[in-house]
Amino acid sequence: MIEVQQERKRVPAVPRRLGPGIALGAAAGPVVFTLAWLVLGFISRGYTAWGVYVPYSPIHQGVSGLGLGETAPFMNAAFIVNGLLTLAGIAAIFAGIPELGRTARRACIAMLALPAIGSIVDGIFTLESFWLHNLGFALVLSTAAGFPVVGFVLRRLPAWRRLATGLIAAGPLTLLLAVVFFMTFTPTVAGANTGIAGITERLLILEIQAWYVALAWTFTRRANR
User: Fold this and answer.
1) Any bridge partners for residue 54, and if so which?
2) Phi, psi dihedrals of residue 6, rounded to the nearest 5°
3) Phi-psi category of residue 12: left, alpha or beta, with phi > 0 → left and psi -120 to 50 → alpha
4) What is the pTM of this model?
5) Using an 8 Å Cβ cutoff, are 212 and 30 in contact?
6) Residues 155-178 pLDDT 10s
7) Tens of pLDDT along 114-135?
């Protein structure tokens, strides 16, 4: 018993009063981000990219288009806030699971932090910074591998098994939605007003961020017990 208690003391953890509150950042970030593109998608009248004016449509165009034009300050701020809140939330969640070893904890935080960092990158570098912006998007898509890795780690813990199973399945689902998005995406300004890439990208974003909300909800519910 003494050895177990000493081992637990070595596990870094967020204070109990702060842990659940900070962990909710993993849910608050996606909520803020979703509300931003929902509202701004109806407000935006268009933007100019590479010298070409493009009327905005949530059906045809992705969320990144809102990072240009009159909606730019708000959308780019939402990208960054989403990333920062999610980073804090993920760190609090896995610091608050004492059953995990140090290596497993760090691996989970690293895998789930990459998309949050990608969101920050996309908020700093807009669509006109083409390569850097797409690097941020690629970090977001790393969840296709990150979700299953975290799922297999958490599956060893009985209380997390249901969510872990969902995360394992989320990997192929994220990959499938990404493929559908790229199939409907026209990578030119001239083709921005055709197709349904705006819809397919939003479905992909919602699916990814829903798992962060689920992680925050599961952790907070268990912590409050």
Assistant:
1) 47
2) -65, -40
3) beta
4) 0.89
5) yes
6) 999 999 999 999 999 999 999 999
7) 999 999 999 999 999 999 999 9
